[in-house]
Amino acid sequence: MRFLRTDIRQPLAFISAGHLHSRRSWTHSRRVIDSFEIIIGVKGTQYIQQQNDRFEVGPGNALLILPGETHFGYQPSEGELTFYWVHFLCPGNAIICKEEEWLEDRIQRESEGQHAVKNEYAYLPLFFRCGHPDKIDILFHQLQHLANSKLIHHSALHYRMTSLFLELAEQADSGHATGALIPPDPLVAEIVEWIRIHTAEPLTASIIADKYGYNRDYLSRQFKRFLGRNLHEYILAQKLFKAKSLLAGTNRTVKQIAHDVGIPDEKYFIRLFRKHEHLTPTGYRNAYYLKHMNVE
To answer: Which of 95, 113, 187, 266 has the smallest number of CB atoms closer than 10 Å to its CB?
Structure first.
C-alpha cells in the first residue's frame, strides 16, 4: 500500500468539491489530473483503476487519486451510485511513500509517547475504510457549504479542507494500527455494530443489556474503557451523528429525521439536539445547506 505524506504546518489548498449521484449504472471516465482527489463512497460501489491497481469504492471507503497517474472506471457500477469528491493540493514537498515508512514513523511516535515532538506530517493511504463515516459526512457537508458561500476570508476553505484531511488521516491511522476498524473487545465490537444497524429504534442501555444478558453498569464501564464514553452516551452520539448527516444531506423534515433516529417525540428530539449541538436541527441544516451536486 502506498501513502501520501504531506506537511501539515501549513493548510492544504482546496480546489473544488462535489457530490455525485447517479440513478443508473455509471462508469468513471479515463483521465489524468494535476491535483490530488479524494473519493468517498456513500451508496453503491464504484470500480476504479489507478495505474495497475483496482479498487472497489463502496460506502465508507476512501480512495486517494494521485496527480499524474491515469485512473478510470474498469467496470460500470451496479444501479444507483453516490459518492463525494474533493480536489486539493499539498503545501511544500508532499511525497508518496511505502507502508514501511509510515509504520516506522508511527512506531517512533509511539515509543516517544508524551515526550514526542509535534508531528509535522500527516499520512494518508491510497485506499482505506473510514472508521466513522458519519464524521466524514458532516465535515464534507461543512466544506461544501463553505465552497458555495460568498467568503470574505477564502483561507477558511483551506483550513476546512485540512480538517477533513486530518480526520481521514486519523481514521486511516487507527484502522491500520489495530488491523481492524473495530474496538479491541469482541463484545463491545458486536454491540457497536448492532447499535449501528438499529439506530432507528428507541434504544436504551437497559434494552441492550437485556438483549446481551449483561449487567447494564458492566456494559457501560466496558464502553467507557474502550470507546471513552458510557453506553448511554454512545447510543446518543450515534443517533445525533445520524441526525446531522440526514439534516445536511437530505430534505427530510425534522419530524421525519427524529423518527429515523428512534426518537419519535419531535419536541424532545429538538431539545436534545440543541443541548448537545448548541443549535436547533433547523439551525444546523441552515448552516450547512449549500452544496455542489452532480446528478446523472
So the answer is: 113
